Amino acid sequence: MLRKYAILLGAVMALAWSSTYANPEDDRMAFEKYFTTKFPEVPLNDFQNGIYSVDPVARADWEQIEEFPPYELAIDAGEAEYNKPFANGKSYSDCFGDGAVRGQYPYWDSERKEVITMELAINECRTSNGEEPLRWNKGKIAELSAYMSYISRGQTVDVKIPEDDPEALAAYERGKQFYYTKRGQLNFSCFDCHGTGAGKGVRLEKLSPALGHTTHWPVYRSKWGAVGTLHRRFGGCNRQVRAKNFKSQGQEYRELEYFLTYMSNGHELNGPGARR
Amino acid sequence: MKKYVISGLLALSFVVAGTSLAGDEFEAAWQAADDKRKEAASMKSEWRDTKKMLDKAKQAAEKGDMDAAMSLVAMAHEQAADGIEQAERESVMWITRVPR
């Protein structure tokens, strides 16, 4: 009985809360304000450097690492793969032109009624040309993504939610709900760590702020010893709070990427990145 | 001698019946926990270790360690139920965390 009253009370609170904000641009501005208020010393365009925007000690190490970035080999491997013809004689350039397309993703496909990410498009390019799809999280797909992100550096995040398609807004809202929903045995939402917890320590590491979170993917993580995709990280975060992770490039993570990337609209793409 | 044989057979039959009863009880409990886990999954709120616990419970049961098996099933059931409760709560509470 008590549980029912608690949920009812929550519903009343939620209703009052939701009536205040209803559109993505209001969400984005409030999101940005949250982080610029929390970290007033950080210039807005520095949030795209993740944890290094708020942790000066880690930043000094990272700046040294960036002199000989560990993702360089992945970029080279990705470039070679990008230029290798498929068995049918075509190549990735028939799908992506020069490959500098990171800024166009993720986007809402109004015909297919789903979010299209760059990694999904890479594999669809392959399968439409008779090639086997790549595994989602690491290896060749992350290398291709690293190359394409590298040559897309300097583009601006500009995710659009078509106003004439309510299903696009619904996908954004599902991604948003996912982001703020506590899950797993540890009962954490994404925002608990990367919003309210941003800048605080967890064991030996500090938690990165969510603003600018999607600008620098894929990332070479020292822990992985290789580049990995954003969805690999989503899965890792879910497992860390002891929730069962969702499938990479499944609906849940693509819509999460749609929401989270929208929150960084206006930020500069600077992938691939290097993280611990 | 005949008495001993009959007593032995009786004892054996009780052990077999007991084991079978425990096995049936385990299967029912395991299935109930797995159904609960699937319900949590359908609400996108399955926890990381629930399925692992159920897998380990089966292994323990196969080895005849029914105490460990039943204990794991109970933990898995509790996790799944907590995941469902979490999903119900979060279906209304998530929005209170959105910055405004």
* Helix content percent band of chain A: 40-55%
Count of β-strands of chain A: 7
What's the overall average pLDDT of chain B, rounded?
89
How are the strands of the biggest sheet of chain A laid out side by side? Answer: 6-5-7
Structural class of chain A: mainly alpha
Number of domains of chain A: 2
Strand fraction of chain B: under 5%
- Average pLDDT confidence of chain A is 94
Element order of chain A: H for helix, E for strand: HHHHHEEHHHHEEEEHHE
Task: Name the biggest interface.
Answer: A-B, 39 and 25 residues
Strand count, sense and barrel status of the largest sheet of chain A are: 3 strands, mixed
End-to-end gap of chain B: 86 Å
Radius of gyration of chain B over all CA atoms, rounded: 21 Å
Domain tally of chain B: 1
State the fourth-level CATH superfamily of the largest domain in chain A: Cytochrome c-like domain
User: Number of DSSP strands of chain B?
Assistant: 0
